[in-house]
């Protein structure tokens, strides 16, 4: 009886999420980890295609209701009146491309998302019903400077169709081996045995988790750049290790900023029947910009925390999850009530003969 109890306790201890184990090893760090439900699904992109209605491909957007096609305001926290995120003063916007399943007959169906893993998360994050799990980490020694009003950035390259070895630690996927987020162990993008740089090639019994990390160094001057990437940089050692933040920043980008990471769990389980897959058994999932490799995964960010709220979190110690010191929270009902009116009217759940905006994407490619 005692031995059985011991084995049960050991199993629970081993199943503790990776971030709890890392947190205990790196005492004093801050890891804000919280869910944001969708504020809208739309074919808009105020960073890459500002003012364009529609933009070439579809996105899922979370965060403040100040999101629009152009977002020219320097401080978006002043244009938003609500947010879908757990922290009620976070009016930032976070977005990624949507994922679609392409059936054997050539039609497409949007893949919905799950919340965060139940056993690994706060109650809010398990109820977001899709959306994005957001991380802000302050783990390195020395000052971590929160983003400033007007700051925005993009990471990843939607045109890439081959693996970039330099990005293996910052852009990855994990195939859940069973229901209830089976196989969710270890920090994201750190274990080549479970993490892949491209979309998994076989059916995943519990769905697919995607992670994408942003650089952690800033030039200290520019809030944006023409390509939305030049004003930020990876540390000298590159994106080598989540939570160690990769070492010192280069002299060109000397200001250390929070480690920002997005995590999305795609519910691919309704499409695990191989008889629906292409006849040659090839990988059937496509991002909304036409990529079925996954190497083009990218993410956009517009900072919108109110006042000094994010800096409070980055200066705090021993904060982990969706609560930290004096930082304000909200309940899930208030978050889900926050929404942006859809601008580009498209059926989000029908079977489609082509990806939304595909004709527009092909025109741009010519």
UniProtKB/TrEMBL annotation:
Keywords: Signal. Residues 45-305 form the DUF1996 domain. Residues 1-15 form the signal peptide. Coiled coil: none annotated. It holds the Pfam family DUF1996. InterPro entries: DUF1996. This is DUF1996 domain-containing protein.
């Amino acid at each position: 009886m005692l031995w059985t109890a011991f084995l049960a306790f050991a199993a629970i201890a081993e199943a503790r999420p990776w971030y709890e184990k890392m947190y205990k090893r790196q005492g004093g760090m801050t890891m804000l980890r919280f869910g944001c439900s969708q504020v809208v699904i739309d074919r808009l992109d105020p960073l890459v295609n500002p003012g364009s209605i529609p933009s070439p491909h579809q996105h899922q957007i979370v965060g403040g209701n100040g999101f629009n096609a152009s977002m020219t305001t320097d401080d978006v926290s002043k244009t938003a009146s609500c947010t879908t995120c757990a922290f009620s003063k976070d009016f930032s916007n976070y977005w990624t491309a949507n994922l679609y399943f392409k059936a054997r007959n050539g039609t497409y169906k949007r893949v919905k998302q799950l919340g965060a893993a139940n056993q690994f998360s706060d109650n809010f994050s398990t109820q977001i019903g899709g959306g994005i799990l957001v991380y802000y980490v302050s783990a390195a020694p020395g000052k971590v400077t929160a983003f400033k009003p007007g700051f925005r950035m993009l990471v990843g390259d939607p045109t890439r169709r081959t693996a970039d070895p330099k990005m293996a630690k910052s852009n990855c996927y994990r195939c859940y081996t069973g229901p209830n987020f089976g196989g969710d162990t270890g920090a994201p993008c750190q274990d080549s045995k479970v993490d892949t740089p491209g979309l998994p090639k076989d059916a995943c019994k519990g769905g697919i988790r995607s992670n994408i990390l942003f650089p952690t160094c800033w030039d200290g001057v520019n809030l944006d750049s023409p390509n939305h990437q030049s004003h930020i940089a990876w540390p000298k050692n590159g994106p080598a290790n989540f939570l160690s933040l990769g070492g010192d920043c280069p002299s060109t980008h000397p200001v250390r900023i929070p480690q920002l990471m997005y995590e999305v769990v795609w519910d691919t389980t309704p499409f695990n029947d191989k008889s629906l897959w292409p006849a040659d058994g090839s990988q059937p999932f496509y991002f909304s910009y036409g990529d079925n490799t996954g190497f083009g995964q990218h993410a956009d960010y517009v900072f919108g925390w109110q006042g000094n709220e994010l800096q409070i979190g980055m200066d705090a110690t021993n904060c982990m999850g969706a609560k930290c010191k004096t930082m304000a929270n909200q309940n899930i009902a208030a978050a889900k009530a926050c929404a942006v009116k859809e601008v580009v009217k498209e059926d989000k759940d029908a079977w489609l003969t082509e990806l939304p905006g595909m004709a527009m994407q092909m025109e741009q490619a010519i």
